[in-house]
Amino acid sequence: MRRLLIQLLAIAGVAVSVLSCGLMWFAIPVGAEPMFASPEAIHTDQPQFTMTYRLVTVVALAIIVICWALGKAGSWGLLATCLWLSALLTFPYAVMNWEPRIAGDAAWLEAQHRNLIWSGGDLNMSLGHRIDGVMDKILLTQTPRSVNPVEVSEWQPSELTLARLPNLVDRLGYSNKFFEFIRPGWVAALAGSILILVAIGAPVGHLDIGRFVRMSGILSASILLLALAAWCWSFAAASDLTVAANSTARGDYEMALDAMQRAKDKLPSLAEDSYFIAQQGLLEDALGRRTAAG
Question: How is residue 173 annotated by DSSP?
Answer without folding.
Answer: T
